[in-house]
Amino acid sequence: MTSLLAAEEAGGVLRLAARGRWTVAAAAELDRVLRAIEARAPRRVSFDLAALEAIDTAGAWLLLRTRDRLGALGAEVRIERLAPDYGPLVRQVEEGGAPVMVPAKKRPGVIADFGESIEEMAKKAVNLVGFVGLVSEAVWRTVRQPSRLRWTSFVSHMEKTGVDALPIVGLLSFLIGLVFAYQGADQLRQFGAEIYTVNLLGVSILRELGVLLTAVLVAGRSGSAFTAQIGTMKVNEEIDAMRTLGLDPIEVLVLPRLFALAITLPLLTFYANVMGLFGGAVMSYFELGIGFPTFLRQLKWFLPGWTFWLGVLKAPFFAAIIVVCGCYEGLRAARSAESVGRLTTTSVVEAIFLVIVVDAAFSIVFSVLRI
Fold first, then answer.
1. Buried-most residue among 34, 198, 312, 361 (CB within 10 A)?
2. Strand bridging mode 76-80 / 44-48
């Protein structure tokens, strides 16, 4: 047929002898030739790769794509005499999910696309709930036998997720406090109620903004790191090695991160609350002339003591969401850099979305309970 492929049909079998270099430089010509083979839809096909001079990921992908498409049409496809040097590359491309069987006709219409999206979201939700069950089971085992926890890893993740996050959490919380106090004072000044800027600031930061801002920052900072780290381990087959050694990846990789963040996120929330109120106090002093003693007295007199605890109470739940999303997507990674990068972005989006949903649920519950 071409310099890349010779075809011969005998005994009801279409024999295809590969030639030359199946590399990205010849991908366009090779794609055209293989599509012509697919259009013929033979019943039995045999690829003979003995004379192949070179093959890269592009050539392997086209070969596997043709095999999968012909198989979907009911053909019997065999790949024969592949050189041992090329075998690992073809297997890696196959395991990485590169060959995607494209349906002959895509279902048209917005409704069909919406239905597919809903179906995919439902599947992911079911898988995520299953992963939560596995993590819960591992947590129960660890609670019963604390020696199962990797304490060195636990302390290391406390430092990475907690201590190392103090500068960015403190700076942004301080700035949010400044901006919120300025905007509140600007509106309340019209009614001569500038002093209530302190009340507005206290309720907003202690109940909502402090913990929510901290969770979003940690999701973007630590959640993405969890996915990237575990995904890279998946690419390097380190997780497979763990299973071979009889180790549970959830106990080794997920639980130290979960316990570490469950402790550090409430502490970071307290720190964010302090920095946010400090920023608001600074703005109140310069903009409204409210001194720090007056600010603290107003805060103490008009805010119930449980207002602070309502915000901190949410932190462990947000920590669990961030860790579960980050580790779940990391363990889903295929053996390719593209997959790790894509799932890292996905984990951050999922974590932030679920954090906001759960925060809204807490707000509704607190409103119903009148607290």
1. 198
2. parallel
Strand bridging mode 13-18 / 44-48: parallel
CA dihedral angle for residue 165, residue 168, residue 171, residue 177, rounded to 10 degrees:
-80
Closest CA to 73 of 48, 31, 100, 44: 44
| Alpha carbon distance 98, 104 (integer Å) | 18
Tens of pLDDT, residues 173-206: 999 999 989 888 888 887 878 888 888 888 889 9
- Give pTM, 2 decimals: 0.69
Helix (H) / strand (E) containing 115: helix 110-144
**What does the alpha-carbon distance between residue 297 and residue 319 come to, in Å, rounded to a whole number?**
32
Say how far apart CA 362 and CA 79 lie, in whole Å. 57
**pLDDT, tens digit, for every residue of 116-128?**
888 888 988 899 9
CB 219 within 8 A of CB 352: yes
Provide CATH 3.30.750.24 ranges for the chain: 5-95
pLDDT over 90, % of the chain: 41
Query: Cα separation of 177 and 281, whole Å?
Result: 8
